[in-house]
Amino acid sequence: MNRSGFKSNDETTSEFYESFISSVQTLNKALDTVSEASGDEKSVSMFDVYTYMLFVNQRLNFLLDHADSIEKSTTIKNDLFLLSSHYQSQVRSQISDKETFNLEAHLKLKEQLNLFMLELPDKYDESQAFIKQFNKASAHIKPLIN
Question: What is d(CA 86, CA 23) in angstroms, rounded to the nearest whole number?
């Protein structure tokens, strides 16, 4: 806290970054439940994953609203939006036909999300090194939307 009792922009941005990281971790845990589920449970688990994807997008938007340097140097916002749109069609297919689960696509999503999480910087800071590492991590989302 600064002297006036308000948080600095860096503190607020750090909190938004921590929230973004936490939401990505929650998404990753939700993906585990899809692997373990069967029948109608699989459809529900996939819908939960889709919901968490939307939450990750929301957390990213809050972060980008406070960290101009990230938004200017990455396409992550668009890539995560496209990913959630793509996943939405998979959820719809699963609900329509319980036998259409695409295990290969699921495993690829899980793998790329793990790589994304591993490469994300631990803490936010306004540096070129942070931006470079964030962009490197973000590159793991792109193969999921192509």
Answer: 19
- For residue 23, give the amino acid letter: S
Give the amino acid at 19.
S
Mean predicted confidence (pLDDT) in 99-116: 92
CA distance 108 to 104: 6
Structure tokens at 14: 């750090």
Q: What is the pLDDT of residues 37-96, one digit of tens each?
A: 988 899 999 999 999 999 999 999 999 888 877 777 678 999 999 999 999 999 998 888
- Rounded Cα distance between 125 and 132, Å, is 12
Residues 43 and 118: their CA atoms lie apart, in Å, by 28
Residue 43, number of CB atoms within 10 A of its CB: 19
pLDDT grade for 1, boundaries at 50, 70 and 90: very low
DSSP codes of every residue in 30-86: HHHHHHH--THHHHHHHHHHHHHHHHHHHHHHHHHHH-HHHHHH--HHHHHHHHHHH
